[in-house]
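<instruction>
Derive C-alpha coordinates from the sequence

<record> Sequence and C-alpha coordinates follow
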Amino acid sequence: MDKVNCFLEALKRRRSRYALTNECPISDKALTALIAQAVKLTPSAFNSQGARVVLLLGEKHKLFWQLTKDALKKIVPPEKFAPTQEKIASFAAAYGTVLFFEDWTTVADLQQKFPTYKDNFPLWAYQSNGMLELVVWTGLAQAGIGASLQHYNPLVDEAAAQAFHIPKTWKLLAQMPFGAAVAEPEDKPFLPVEARLRVEK
Protein backbone atom coordinates (compact mmCIF):
# COMPACT_ATOMS: atom_id res chain seq x y z
CA MET A 1 0.00 0.00 0.00
CA ASP A 2 1.39 3.42 -0.94
CA LYS A 3 1.92 6.20 1.57
CA VAL A 4 -1.18 8.18 0.55
CA ASN A 5 -3.45 5.19 0.96
CA CYS A 6 -1.82 4.31 4.28
CA PHE A 7 -2.65 7.79 5.52
CA LEU A 8 -6.25 7.58 4.30
CA GLU A 9 -6.70 4.15 5.84
CA ALA A 10 -5.54 5.56 9.17
CA LEU A 11 -8.16 8.30 8.91
CA LYS A 12 -10.83 5.70 8.12
CA ARG A 13 -9.86 3.77 11.24
CA ARG A 14 -10.51 6.83 13.40
CA ARG A 15 -14.10 6.54 14.56
CA SER A 16 -16.07 7.44 17.68
CA ARG A 17 -15.97 4.45 20.02
CA TYR A 18 -18.19 4.68 23.09
CA ALA A 19 -18.13 1.12 24.43
CA LEU A 20 -14.64 0.99 25.96
CA THR A 21 -12.94 -1.16 28.56
CA ASN A 22 -10.25 -0.43 31.13
CA GLU A 23 -7.59 -2.03 28.94
CA CYS A 24 -4.95 -0.71 26.58
CA PRO A 25 -3.05 -2.73 23.95
CA ILE A 26 0.13 -0.66 24.39
CA SER A 27 2.14 0.29 27.47
CA ASP A 28 1.72 3.59 29.28
CA LYS A 29 5.23 4.50 28.10
CA ALA A 30 4.31 3.90 24.45
CA LEU A 31 1.02 5.70 24.93
CA THR A 32 2.78 8.74 26.37
CA ALA A 33 5.32 8.71 23.54
CA LEU A 34 2.54 8.58 20.93
CA ILE A 35 0.76 11.59 22.42
CA ALA A 36 4.03 13.47 22.89
CA GLN A 37 4.83 13.08 19.20
CA ALA A 38 1.33 14.26 18.28
CA VAL A 39 1.80 17.37 20.42
CA LYS A 40 5.21 18.02 18.90
CA LEU A 41 4.29 17.51 15.24
CA THR A 42 0.87 19.17 15.00
CA PRO A 43 1.17 22.57 13.29
CA SER A 44 0.15 25.89 14.84
CA ALA A 45 -0.11 29.48 13.61
CA PHE A 46 3.28 31.23 13.64
CA ASN A 47 4.63 28.00 15.16
CA SER A 48 3.20 29.29 18.43
CA GLN A 49 2.75 25.81 19.95
CA GLY A 50 0.03 26.92 22.36
CA ALA A 51 -1.70 23.55 22.70
CA ARG A 52 -1.37 21.77 26.04
CA VAL A 53 -2.33 18.20 26.89
CA VAL A 54 -2.90 16.37 30.17
CA LEU A 55 -2.97 12.56 30.03
CA LEU A 56 -5.08 11.09 32.82
CA LEU A 57 -4.59 7.45 33.78
CA GLY A 58 -5.75 5.24 36.61
CA GLU A 59 -7.42 7.02 39.51
CA LYS A 60 -6.87 10.47 37.95
CA HIS A 61 -8.89 9.38 34.92
CA LYS A 62 -11.71 8.14 37.15
CA LEU A 63 -11.57 11.33 39.21
CA PHE A 64 -12.13 13.51 36.15
CA TRP A 65 -15.33 11.71 35.26
CA GLN A 66 -16.49 11.80 38.88
CA LEU A 67 -15.98 15.56 38.85
CA THR A 68 -17.90 15.75 35.58
CA LYS A 69 -20.77 13.73 37.01
CA ASP A 70 -20.86 15.94 40.11
CA ALA A 71 -21.03 19.05 37.92
CA LEU A 72 -23.81 17.61 35.78
CA LYS A 73 -25.80 16.64 38.86
CA LYS A 74 -26.12 20.32 39.70
CA ILE A 75 -27.85 21.18 36.42
CA VAL A 76 -29.66 18.01 35.26
CA PRO A 77 -33.05 17.33 36.93
CA PRO A 78 -32.95 14.18 39.13
CA GLU A 79 -35.69 12.48 37.14
CA LYS A 80 -33.60 12.87 33.96
CA PHE A 81 -30.21 12.07 35.43
CA ALA A 82 -30.10 8.30 34.83
CA PRO A 83 -29.12 8.48 31.11
CA THR A 84 -26.50 11.14 31.92
CA GLN A 85 -25.06 9.01 34.70
CA GLU A 86 -24.91 6.00 32.39
CA LYS A 87 -23.03 7.97 29.74
CA ILE A 88 -20.49 9.32 32.23
CA ALA A 89 -20.03 5.83 33.68
CA SER A 90 -19.15 4.55 30.20
CA PHE A 91 -16.38 7.15 29.93
CA ALA A 92 -15.12 6.35 33.43
CA ALA A 93 -14.98 2.65 32.49
CA ALA A 94 -12.35 3.42 29.83
CA TYR A 95 -8.59 3.18 30.33
CA GLY A 96 -7.74 6.88 30.35
CA THR A 97 -8.61 10.36 29.19
CA VAL A 98 -6.74 12.97 27.20
CA LEU A 99 -7.54 16.57 28.17
CA PHE A 100 -6.90 19.16 25.46
CA PHE A 101 -6.11 22.74 26.45
CA GLU A 102 -4.92 25.94 24.80
CA ASP A 103 -2.60 28.23 26.74
CA TRP A 104 -4.30 31.60 26.27
CA THR A 105 -1.07 33.39 27.20
CA THR A 106 0.24 32.29 23.82
CA VAL A 107 -2.79 33.79 22.08
CA ALA A 108 -2.48 37.05 24.01
CA ASP A 109 1.25 37.33 23.24
CA LEU A 110 0.63 36.86 19.54
CA GLN A 111 -2.14 39.45 19.59
CA GLN A 112 0.25 41.93 21.14
CA LYS A 113 3.10 41.18 18.73
CA PHE A 114 0.97 41.06 15.59
CA PRO A 115 -2.03 43.39 16.12
CA THR A 116 -2.99 43.18 12.43
CA TYR A 117 -4.08 39.57 13.03
CA LYS A 118 -5.45 40.13 16.54
CA ASP A 119 -8.94 38.81 15.81
CA ASN A 120 -7.60 35.73 14.02
CA PHE A 121 -5.37 34.28 16.72
CA PRO A 122 -8.17 32.78 18.86
CA LEU A 123 -9.63 31.17 15.74
CA TRP A 124 -6.26 29.83 14.66
CA ALA A 125 -5.69 28.46 18.17
CA TYR A 126 -8.95 26.51 17.97
CA GLN A 127 -8.04 25.23 14.52
CA SER A 128 -4.63 24.04 15.71
CA ASN A 129 -6.16 22.33 18.73
CA GLY A 130 -8.68 20.62 16.48
CA MET A 131 -5.83 19.31 14.34
CA LEU A 132 -4.11 18.00 17.47
CA GLU A 133 -7.28 16.22 18.56
CA LEU A 134 -7.48 14.53 15.16
CA VAL A 135 -3.80 13.55 15.21
CA VAL A 136 -4.09 12.03 18.71
CA TRP A 137 -7.37 10.30 17.84
CA THR A 138 -5.96 8.83 14.62
CA GLY A 139 -2.77 7.78 16.37
CA LEU A 140 -4.77 5.98 19.04
CA ALA A 141 -6.84 4.23 16.37
CA GLN A 142 -3.65 3.10 14.61
CA ALA A 143 -2.50 1.60 17.90
CA GLY A 144 -5.77 -0.33 18.23
CA ILE A 145 -7.23 2.00 20.85
CA GLY A 146 -10.82 3.22 20.72
CA ALA A 147 -11.74 6.79 21.67
CA SER A 148 -14.36 9.51 21.38
CA LEU A 149 -14.23 13.28 21.65
CA GLN A 150 -16.28 14.96 24.40
CA HIS A 151 -16.95 18.56 25.41
CA TYR A 152 -17.95 18.95 29.06
CA ASN A 153 -16.11 22.25 29.25
CA PRO A 154 -16.66 24.80 30.67
CA LEU A 155 -18.89 22.88 33.10
CA VAL A 156 -16.00 20.94 34.64
CA ASP A 157 -13.20 23.47 34.08
CA GLU A 158 -12.88 24.84 37.61
CA ALA A 159 -13.04 21.47 39.36
CA ALA A 160 -10.54 19.93 36.93
CA ALA A 161 -8.17 22.88 37.30
CA GLN A 162 -8.14 22.42 41.08
CA ALA A 163 -7.83 18.64 40.97
CA PHE A 164 -5.02 18.51 38.42
CA HIS A 165 -3.22 21.80 39.17
CA ILE A 166 -4.02 23.33 35.79
CA PRO A 167 -2.59 26.84 35.21
CA LYS A 168 -5.24 29.55 35.05
CA THR A 169 -4.18 30.52 31.52
CA TRP A 170 -4.96 27.04 30.14
CA LYS A 171 -8.40 26.85 28.53
CA LEU A 172 -9.99 23.39 28.43
CA LEU A 173 -11.31 22.63 24.93
CA ALA A 174 -12.07 18.91 24.77
CA GLN A 175 -11.79 15.55 26.50
CA MET A 176 -10.99 12.20 24.89
CA PRO A 177 -11.75 9.02 26.87
CA PHE A 178 -9.99 5.99 25.38
CA GLY A 179 -9.53 2.27 25.89
CA ALA A 180 -10.03 -1.08 24.24
CA ALA A 181 -13.14 -0.95 22.03
CA VAL A 182 -15.60 -3.80 22.52
CA ALA A 183 -17.54 -3.37 19.28
CA GLU A 184 -17.01 -2.17 15.75
CA PRO A 185 -18.70 1.14 14.87
CA GLU A 186 -21.69 1.12 12.54
CA ASP A 187 -21.36 2.40 9.01
CA LYS A 188 -22.04 6.11 8.80
CA PRO A 189 -23.61 7.98 5.89
CA PHE A 190 -21.61 10.41 3.79
CA LEU A 191 -22.86 13.24 1.66
CA PRO A 192 -21.81 13.00 -1.99
CA VAL A 193 -18.26 14.34 -2.09
CA GLU A 194 -19.21 16.33 -5.20
CA ALA A 195 -21.42 18.48 -2.97
CA ARG A 196 -18.47 19.34 -0.75
CA LEU A 197 -15.48 19.50 -3.08
CA ARG A 198 -15.00 21.74 -6.08
CA VAL A 199 -12.08 21.66 -8.50
CA GLU A 200 -11.39 24.80 -10.51
CA LYS A 201 -8.87 24.86 -13.36
